[in-house]
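Quick start: read one record
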Amino acid sequence: MFRYLPKIIKSQSVCVLVAAFLAAGKAQQPASTTSSGSPAPTPVTNTSSSSQRVVLKVGNLQVTQADFETMVRDLEAQQGPADVSRQAIGDNYASLLALSQQAVANHLDSSPEVTRQLALDRTQILSNAEFARLKAEAKPTPEEISAYYSAHLDDYDVVQLRRVFIWTNQEGSKNGHGLSQQDASALAAAVRKAFASGTDVSKPLHDAMHDPESVVFDNEPLTFQRGELPPKMEEAAFALKVGGWTELNDAPGTFVFLQLVKRSRRDLKEVSSQIEKKLQAQKLKEELDNLKKNAGIWMDEQYFAPPSQKPLASTQPGTSVQEKQ
């Protein structure tokens, strides 16, 4: 029945969403009276507007086109585009509203379990709203982004590398593939000789008989920004001169060669979004830390301690841990 709505509404959020639509729908129900018995004022609406067109009724509740489309947009923003028809969404939403109305008629909205879930949902929604506000406020300015870039220029250095990996079939080799130790050593020696003499390294690699998973060679160089390579490989790569080769063997039975093809630096325009996310995350963390500090949070360290750090529980009244030991 609920093929689409449960997919895009978390189970504990359904009641909150329905409650919001119930509240919005009250203004469209038949006119009520005030405590003095006079008719309650009715908002003036433009009935000719398509957004105020009633597209769904469940009992006395009326849902306008604007309400329905807003609901769908909100859900799709959270969970992605719907993969079913509008009619299917409407059918499922009508069923959801009908069930909600029946739950209220059966006084389930005042049951301890539902009350607890509604309270938890309210807390979660408010938390999400405040987090979104803090995140928006933490967005750095263009000036802050530019200043950070200028102070961390080295972080945006990039290298274009050509890599050679030769694996042997010893223990720990990739997927059980690899050359014999003798063949791998001979091929590694041929690679060393080629780059030392300035000849094409790809020739001995292509001439050697091997499967694609035993030897890997980058025909086209790959680009890496500082911080994207393993530490040892990054240190070796950024220490190279353009055109130079180095050997980096950090695993038994593996031969690794690197060639620096080009060195450059990404400009501010290229990395602005990267810096923005980094600064925003830093600011947001600081705001959250301050919020928690000012909120006066306290936690029972004994209760929340990892199991290995909790004291042994006494099996007899009046027996201390020391006495048990």
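The domain at 155-265 is CATH 3.10.50.40 (Chitinase A; domain 3).
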